[in-house]
Write a structure and sequence with these properties.
This protein is an alpha+beta fold. It contains 4 helices and 5 strands, in the order H-H-E-E-H-E-E-H-E.
């Protein structure tokens, strides 16, 4: 017996293939959405974790900035205290500068040289005096330059020849001079010679000019 299928089997097969294709397409879309959701969730979790870490780091940074400000303030206070301490130490050390000045002037004066006036302004000392000759003045300059630990950079400002009357019949030719020399601070004297001299506290009070001659 011969069976003949008169139904439209090609259209039914095509319809089944379309249904399978659409089902596979829907499954792929659903799987893609699921995977995209998982990836999105994973990235969101990573972003949230990183955001929490950033917030924690920002909080720690702010806390450290506050501590740094406190430390800087403490360092400024320590530096100010050290500066005041150094100023007090310099003032205490410089109290004896007039004594050292007069002692060095007497010690470094060669024979035949007299100081008639002495004046100090800050660390600059001006010596007015009379010498028997220019050679005596040169010797005084060498002594102040090389032999005195408290005096430095002597400078001859003026030297003038004049006559002085010892008696009505005896006149001597002398040299009137003005010398400027720098007085070292106590802190500079205590430092090694190779160290650079740094400015200390404010200069000592000017020494009053002496009207009496100082002679060695």
């Amino acid at each position: 017996m011969i069976l003949i299928n008169l139904l439209p089997h090609r259209e039914a097969a095509r319809k089944r293939r379309h249904e399978v294709f659409y089902m596979a397409l829907a499954g792929a879309a659903l799987l893609g959405c699921l995977l995209a959701g998982l990836v999105y969730g994973w990235y969101e979790a990573r972003i949230a974790s990183q955001r929490d870490k950033n917030q924690y780091l920002q909080g720690e940074i702010k806390r450290l900035e506050t501590q740094i400000k406190d430390i800087a303030s403490l360092q400024s206070e320590i530096a100010a205290l050290r500066a005041r301490q150094q100023a007090v130490e310099d003032l205490q050390a410089n109290r004896n500068l007039p004594v050292h000045l007069l002692n060095e002037v007497v010690k470094q004066l060669p024979d035949g040289v007299y100081v008639t006036a002495l004046r100090q302004v800050d660390q600059s000392v001006t010596l007015n005096g009379v010498a028997q000759s220019n050679e005596r003045v040169s010797e005084l300059l060498r002594n102040l330059s090389n032999n005195s630990p408290w005096m430095t950079r002597p400078e001859l400002i003026e030297i003038v020849a004049s006559n002085i009357a010892l008696t009505p019949r005896d006149q001597r030719r002398v040299s009137n001079f003005i010398i400027r020399v720098q007085l070292k601070r106590a802190s500079d004297v205590a430092r090694p010679a190779s160290a650079a001299a740094a400015p200390g506290a404010s200069g000592a009070a000017p020494v009053a000019a002496s009207s009496a001659a100082v002679k060695r």
